[in-house]
Specification:
- By secondary structure, this protein is of the alpha+beta class.
- It has helices at about 1-30, 35-40, and strands at about 50-55, 65, 70-75, 80-85, 100-105, 115, 120-125, 140-145, 155-160, 165-170.
- The radius of gyration is 24 Å and the shape is globular.
- The relative contact order is 0.18.
């Protein structure tokens, strides 16, 4: 009886290992994720509702930002999102900071005029159902990098980076 159960356990272990190896091979042959320009290009017919802001620069005064899509398109009662990444060196290394998106218009029916996004995080905002569609003109906003004040009586340092816009469709 011990011989049979030992052989059975060994056979099951070998079958399981073969199954795992086949599954791993199948996962490796699946399409690799798109990188670079291919990752930024949405499939035809899809509207981009999320964009990535990347902060780079050698020193605090040299901070720059790039955005994957300078014109985000959203819809009423749907969500739009911003993701913030940094190169972890230069202007952001070892510092406490966040990104603020400051809208010049009352884009979301009075809500979320300033949207704050922490580094290596994302912020999702649901567009209010009463937010007016933009048509050909979008809602302009500025992207600021904000360093908190070293002392409570001082004001935070806000450095403007880029000026994208948000379009709202019906």
């Amino acid at each position: 009886m011990r011989m049979i159960s030992g052989a059975l356990v060994c056979a099951m272990a070998m079958a399981g290992a073969a199954s795992c190896a086949n599954r791993a091979a199948a996962l490796q042959t699946a399409a690799a994720p798109a990188v670079g320009a291919a990752a930024l290009t949405p499939a035809a017919g899809l509207k981009k509702r999320m964009t990535r802001i990347v902060v780079t620069g050698a020193a605090a005064a040299d901070c720059q930002a790039t955005i994957d899509d300078g014109d985000i398109i959203g819809r009423q009662r749907k969500r739009v999102a911003w993701m913030v990444e940094d190169d972890t060196s230069g202007c952001t290394a070892g510092r406490n900071w966040h990104i603020e998106l400051e809208f010049t218009s009352d884009w979301n029916n009075g809500n979320d005029r300033i949207v704050k996004v922490k580094p290596d995080d994302f912020k999702i905002v649901k567009i209010d159902q009463a937010a007016s569609p933009t048509g050909s003109d979008g809602h302009d906003y500025k992207v600021y990098i904000v360093y908190p004040a070293p002392w409570p009586w001082q004001t935070p340092v806000r450095i403007p980076l880029i000026d994208p816009e948000l379009d709202i469709e019906m």
